[in-house]
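Morning run. Coffee first, then this:
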Amino acid sequence: MPYVNDFARRFAGSAAVELTRLRLGLVTVGSTGDVSPILALSRGLQRAGHEVRVVAPSWFEATARGLGIDFRPLRDFDPQALLQSERGRAAFAIRNPVRAWRAFGAIAEPEARSVLDDAVTACEGVDAVGFSGLGMFPGLVAAAALRVPYFAAHLVPIGTTADFPSALLPQRPAWLPGYNRASHALARWLVWRTFAPLASRARPGGHGSSPFPSWAAMLAGARVSLFGISPAVLPPPETWASWSRFTGYWFLDRSGPWQPPPELLDFLARGPPPVVVGFGSMSGRQPARTTEVVLEALGRAGVRGIILSGWGGLESGGLPSSVMSLASAPHEWLFPRAAAAVHHGGAGTTASAVRAGVPSVVVPFAFDQPFWGARLRKLGVAPEPIPERRLTPTRLGAAIRVAVGDARMRRTAQALGERIRAEDGVGVAVKEIELALRRRPPP
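And here it is:
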């Protein structure tokens, strides 16, 4: 199967897709916060009359098929097992960004070949390939192998600007002159240096130079770059190209009402709104200790709590009567019934919290989480983020008291939620994809 190196040359001159009904493959990897928005985008494309295949870890197959989405699994890639492994937790503990990315690349390498194989096979027969996050690399390989156009559907801002620092690097040096713009260049270098050679070594067709000549060539070859981000949360930089569009968030709401367990309804009815605590797929190296900190902090703040154990493995036993535990619950149902949300700052959870109109307390672990924590603080809907390595009952308890007790913060959160609920991120994204694929690109 042929692979090409020059994406920009190959696809910039390709013909527009002259079809009313598009056949699309959407490739993504990661946890629930990475995959759920792509499922939401897929449903929107299907409602618009297009045929969509989602290519993602097999963990999400039941959810996708339950929503009527054609799902093609990345069979050997299990993000939950990776994140909960000793190597995965150790990688999260690395503070040096270069070493951390290198560690995650080493963890991903054994499954890289099967991931690329599955992506290419799953996308056979499509008119175009879309990708999100680190799904960029299998998505690019599939587009090159099949010689079809591609587009980006990201959940974090990727580009160069002086307006804000890179979402993938530390946020505190943002006050330094020139840091913001330089941080984007460094982040691109880290991601490309880690995963492009890995994809090149693992791709079908043998070894050789990277099939991705540069980040700039990848951007030049994309028909459109969409960002599932609300402009109310992060205004798009004016200097970004017209084909980079912040559409609003892509929310995967259930097609029917979720039925909460009776014990949850009883707990909510017994007292004031609780603080919901959940760190998604994050846990750190000592999830039992993290649970102890959370319980003590809730007690210090004098509030009731609901702990979402999630993939991170927060403990669910030995809880006081003022706290209950759930494995999971739809954020769109639970967060509006909460006094505040304590979370890791993942893009998906952050979106759900701001849409619900409740204050947040962000405990970032890694990746883009410090970025969103800093952003929510700047918007006035969260206190200062507490990095996971600095999490203590005193700090977390004080932050919870602010989030619950600050009337101005609550009003700001409610107003922001109203703005986001008025957006139609999926609808905007669907129209942008249709326009991008149906028009003939410049020669």
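The radius of gyration is 21 Å. Good start to the day.
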